Amino acid sequence: MSTVVEELASGGVRLAVPLLLASSGELLSERAGVLNLSVEGMMLTGAFAGAAGALASGSAGVGVLAALAAGLLFAALQALLSVVLRADQIVTGITANALALGATTYGSRVLFGDGAADSVPGFDPVAVPVLHRVPVLGPALFEQTVLGYAAFAVAAALALGFSRRTGWGLAVDAIGEDATTADRCGLPVRAVRFAAVLLTGAVSGLAGAQLALSEVHAFSDDLTGGIGYLAVVAVIAGRWRAWPTILACLFIGVAQSLQFAAPALGLHLSAPLLTTLPYVVALLAVSGLVGRSRAPSGLTTPFLRGN
Q: What is the C-alpha to C-alpha distance for residues 145 and 154, in angstroms, rounded to an integer?
């Protein structure tokens, strides 16, 4: 039984890593007032660019750089529409996701249609001496790939660097709550929002690279499978706070892992039911049954100086 629990924990953390990266950026973007529903598209584009870059160069490191660049370019387009042109954030996000799905599906048929996706260079797990032998948590936390460890570092850095105890964190919250007042106080509202969306694109691109280069060493149509939307849900479940959002990501990851570990645990549940479990958890989080939460007052509200 202990081996099964270790596998459940290890699988849950592994599945939570890309979710953790994407939600860390999405949290910052929403705190600044921009609902970035295009996280799914950013991740998918990053996964495709990462696999294509790694395949073309023969280097997983080059694939990571390509994923970062793709995520930033995608985010720049999103920021241009939602921050500069003040387009509807929900409509642009959903449209961008549809565009990313179509473009990457076509690109996958062109580049990987002959089965070349199976030979994409990637990253292998690196065990931390001694620590990886700790029961249950050891294999889960200390047998990650280089990108997995980087994901933990990035999530922790964003949580600490933009906490409500730092000047940067307070500035982001002020802009997300009341952009007009923040502007009158001298805060660069548009610049901060634009930068927050770009940061979301960068970490979402890394999340896509984690999926393509660390998990499957390949690319397939719709590789992300809705993880970007779950990242938005994790932010809501975490009540727009960093550490609760991280816990929500881990919880969703374990829920996803349960579908693989359930038979060994003696849980004879139907596969479709286990597959939908993470989304049931997401529905409960969005409905508010996990506790009351209040979104930033300025979320989805475009900023126009003089309003």
A: 14
pTM for the whole thing? Answer: 0.89
Cα 14 → chain centroid = 13
Sequence-ordered list of residues with C-beta below 8 angstroms from that of 58, at least 6 positions apart, any chain: 121
pLDDT, tens digit, 9 for 90 and up, residues 32-85: 999 999 999 999 999 999 999 998 888 899 999 999 999 999 999 999 999 999
Cβ burial, residue 61 (10 Å; 0-12/13-18/19+): middle
Q: How far apart are CA 96 and CA 84, in angstroms?
A: 16
Buried b / exposed e across 35-51, counting CB within 10 Å, b at 16+? bbbbbbbbbbbbbbbbb
| Alpha carbon distance 111, 221 (integer Å) | 12
C-alpha–C-alpha distance, residues 207 and 67, integer Å: 9
pLDDT, tens digit, for every residue of 237-284? Answer: 888 888 888 888 888 888 777 766 666 556 666 666 666 766 776 677
